[in-house]
Amino acid sequence: MAKLLKKTGTTNSNKQSSKSSSSDFRPYDRPFLELLQEKELEIMIHTVKCVHASLEPFEYYGKPPKGSIKSGPVLMENNSIYTGYLDHHNHRQSHGVQIWTDGSLFEGSWYNDKREGKGRMIYYNGNYYEGNWKDDQRHGYGILVESNKAKYEGHWENGLKSGKGFDIDAEENKYDGTFENGLMHGKGKIEYSNGNYYSGEFSNGCLEGKGTFQWKDGRKYEGKWKNNKCTARDYLLGMMGGFTKVNLLKDQKNGYGVFTWPDGRMHEGQWKNDNQDGEGIYTTKLGTKSGVWKNGKRIND
User: Fold this and answer.
1) What spatial distance separates the first Cα and last Cα of the chain, rounded to whole Å?
2) How much of the chain is helix, strand and coil, in % rounded to 5?
3) What is the distance between the alpha carbons of residues 151 and 143, in angstroms, rounded to a whole number?
4) What number of H helices and E strands is found in the chain?
5) 3-state secondary structure labels for all residues of 5-50
């Protein structure tokens, strides 16, 4: 239970309507600012205030529990300031607004002294989250918008992205798929801002499992991935501008494979570390040559 250090003004919940907006609580009234003296905190509060002013007023639904009291501003034991409803144990309950010493602001529903239900949190750095809460954590459906324009819309579990979601990072790369423990995990697709595209499986935030990667110039790899790298013997369409079927190790051509260059030249044979290495057949418009290659150079016929 939060310990009350200062309390001003109370109203019985029986006189309140079933719907109210955040303007009822006026989180930026003088009583809030007078308790924060440091200039750094005032700068942080200004950031939060600007974000708050840019958003639609937060709406509260449902009536506060019978017997709860609207109170505030209240200085809590962690020096945060709360304005809203309290139960007879002085627990934050139902509708309320709280501002922390770093300027972060929450407006929404409370239960047993914790954020629970619908709510909006604006963080000191300008990020904000609006959606469902449980046990003081983001839980259920919600939207997180960051000051660098990154955005996530989808499901959360215990404060982390979990389940189906849509994510845009600061570089405007777009992921649509499933998450686990805050990371891309399961099936999904990425549209990269540079025009590349991936569709397939993910594990712990990495391209892992079966998937297809397509470059904006039309090249395409279909096969297996491990820790963001191609690893299996599979089809690589248009690697370096050509077509090949090779054994991929650390994103390089290794083992037997066929590679066709954009100008029509083709080499069929053994590869090592991305170079022709071993027996092979080299074909051009002028004809075909067979022989042995070492580090990309033919050493004999």
Assistant:
1) 85
2) 10, 60, 30
3) 7
4) 2, 26
5) EEECCEEEHHHCCCEEEHHHCCCCCHHHHHCCCCHHHHHHHHHHHH
- Alpha helical stretches, state H, the chain: 30-34, 39-54
Per-residue DSSP letters for 151-168? EEEEEEETTEEEEEEEEE
DSSP state of 56: P
pLDDT digits (tens, 9 = 90+) for 40-73: 566 678 899 899 999 999 988 888 888 888 877 8
As a dihedral over the C-alpha atoms of residue 155, residue 156, residue 160, residue 165, rounded to 10 degrees, the angle is 0
Global pTM value: 0.72
Quick one: tokens of 122? 């604006």
Query: For residue 59, which of 12, 14, 24, 91 has the smallest C-alpha distance?
Result: 24
Q: Are 238 and 222 in contact (CB under 8 A)?
A: no
Nearest to 77 by CA among 96, 94, 98: 98
